[in-house]
Amino acid sequence: MSPSSELLVERAARLPAAVALHARPAGSLVRAAATYAADVFVSANGQRANAKSILDVLALGAEGGTELAIDASGEDAVAAAEHLAALIPELA
């Protein structure tokens, strides 16, 4: 990464075993991501989605127990990545 590159913050979190990333938990994740100015993405199963787009997040098809990767860049990236990584295990 060159000195002029934006900071990229990465965190990992696992979905609860009984919780797939369907409409309600995905909506919670998207609403939380939307509160940040950072560009935020979530990855699972080799796919990457804009964490601020419900359709993108739903398209991941993440099942319960799936390991998710959160990456954020830009203003408040650290706060965004840490908040979302903490939120994921609490989704219901």
- What's the SSE pattern? EHEEHEH
- Rg, rounded, reads 12 Å
Strand order of the largest sheet: 1-4-2-3
Low-pLDDT windows of residues: none
Question: Which secondary-structure class do the elements indicate?
Answer: alpha+beta
**What's the rounded overall pLDDT mean?**
94
Q: What distance separates the N and C termini? A: 37 Å
Strand content: 25-35%
Number of strands: 4
Shape: globular
At a glance:
Helices cover 32% and strands 26% of the residues. It is an alpha+beta fold and 92 residues long.
Task: Describe the 3D structure.
The protein has 92 residues and is of the alpha+beta class. The protein has 3 helices and 4 strands. It has a 4-stranded antiparallel beta sheet with strand order 1-4-2-3.
What's the topology here?
Layout: E1 8-14, H1 23-34, E2 39-44, E3 47-50, H2 54-59, E4 67-73, H3 77-87
Antiparallel strand pairs: 1-4, 2-3, 2-4
